[in-house]
Amino acid sequence: MQLRKPLKSDPLPSERTRPSPFPNFPPQSVIDDFRAWVIETGRPDLWLHHDPSSPPRDAEFDEVLRFVIPESKRADVGRATCPICSPLAPKYYEGSLAWFRGEGVLRAIGHECAKSHFGEAAVARSKFEGQRRRAEDYLLATLPLAGNLKMRARALKPVAAAMDSLRSVLLRAGSKSAWTRIAKLGAGGSLPIEKLEEIHIVDGFGKASSRMEARTVNRVPVDGLSFIIERFLTAAEAHNAVAAAELINTCTAEEALDLVIQLSPRMDDLLDAERLLRSALAAVEQLERKVADARAFLSPANLQRLSDWTLDLRVDAGLVVSFSMQTPFQFKVRSPPREWRTLPVPPELRPAR
Ligand SMILES: [Zn+2]
User: Are residues 322 and 210 both part of a single domain?
Assistant: First the structure.
C-alpha cells in the first residue's frame, strides 16, 4: 500500500484525529458494562466511554438504552450532568445512553434532552432502531449456535417420559408430603441434621427455667430434589419444546446473515423470528436443566448421601431411602407402614459416561 501525499483540502490533524471509539453501534458487552456501572455507581456521567463534550445541534443519534439512577444511590451521588443542557451542574435521574453515529461516541444524556433537543419523533425512531439492532444482533449470534436445537429437543422426549414415571413411583413409595418436606428442607442444596438441646434461662426476676431447642449440627449436601416435586408432566414440557424447536432451521453463520439481511427491513418478521428463537431456546434449555437435576438426584453419590441422611437417628424424614454402591442403579424407598419398594434407575437417567 502506498501513502498519498497530503492535500491542501485535507482536514487539519486536530479535526481529523478526534477519537471516534464507536464507529458502529456499541456491542452488547459495552451496553451491559454501562448498565452494570450505573447500577453499581449511580454515575452515568463518570462512565469510561461517556463523552462529556456537547454534541452538534443537528447531530443524529440512536438511543442505546434508557436508564434510571437507582433510588438507593441518589442520596449519595445526586443527579447526573447532561452534556447537552447542563454539562457542569447536576441535572437528571432518568436518562438515555445515546450513540452519536456522526462522531462515533456515546453520551449519557438526560431524558428531557433526549426528547426535546432531538424531538419526540427522533426518540421514537431511535428506540425503534435500537430494537431492530438488538433483534439482528441476537439472531446473528444465536442462530448458528441453535442449529441442532431440534435434535436436542427430540433427544429429551424419552428422558422426560422416564422422569415422569420414576417420579410417580417415588411419590407412591415414599409419601408426597414427606418428599415435599424433604425437597423444601434441601432446596438450598443441603439437608440439615438437628439435635435437640436443653437451654437454661434465668429471667429478670432470677427465676430459672429450661426449654428444648433444635440446633443444626451438620448439613448433608444433596442435589436435584426439585425433580421430585415438579408440578407439571415433564413429557408435556418436552412436547412443547420439540414443537418450538421444529420451527428453527439449522443454519450456518452465513445463512444466518442472509436471513437477517432479508428480514431486517420488515420489522414485524424480524421481531417474530427473534421471539421464536428465544422461546425455543429457553424451552429446550429449561428442560435440559431439569434433566440435569434428575440425573444429579439419581447419581450414586447423591443417593448414598440421601440414604445416610434418612437413616440418621437424629433425622425424622418421614421416609427411608436405602442404597448400596454394590448396586448403583437401584435404590429402595419406604414410608412406614408401607413396604419397601425397589426403584431401578432408568437407563435414560443414568449418569452420562
Ligand atoms: Zn439535558
Answer: yes
Note whether 98 and 233 are same-domain residues: no
Is position 33 within any domain?
A: yes
Total residues belonging to the chain: 353
Distance from residue 87's CA to the centre of ligand 1 (Å): 8
Which residues hold their Cβ within 5 A of ligand 1, which is an ion? 82, 84-85, 110, 113
Query: Which residue range forms the structural domain that includes residue 258?
Result: 149-349
pTM over 0.90: no
d(CA 72, CA 322): 51
In a domain, 5, yes or no: no
Domains in the chain: how many in total? 2
Does the residue 133 lie in any domain?
A: no
Q: Is 327 a member of any domain? A: yes
Distance 20 CA to ligand 1 centre (A): 22
H or E element that contains 196: strand 190-202
Q: Same domain, yes or no, for 76 and 205?
A: no
Same structural domain for residues 71 and 190? no
Same domain? 79 vs 169: no
In a shared domain, residues 82 and 162: no
- pLDDT by residue for the chain (353 residues), tens only, comes to 334 454 545 444 444 456 789 999 999 889 989 988 888 889 999 999 999 999 887 777 888 888 888 888 888 899 999 998 899 999 999 999 999 989 999 999 998 888 775 666 677 777 787 888 888 888 888 888 887 899 999 999 999 999 999 999 999 999 899 999 999 999 999 999 998 888 888 888 888 888 888 889 999 999 999 999 998 999 999 999 999 998 888 788 888 888 888 887 788 898 999 999 999 999 999 999 999 999 999 999 999 999 999 999 999 999 999 999 999 999 999 998 889 999 999 999 997 66
How far does the centroid of ligand 1 lie from the alpha carbon of residue 137, in Å? 29
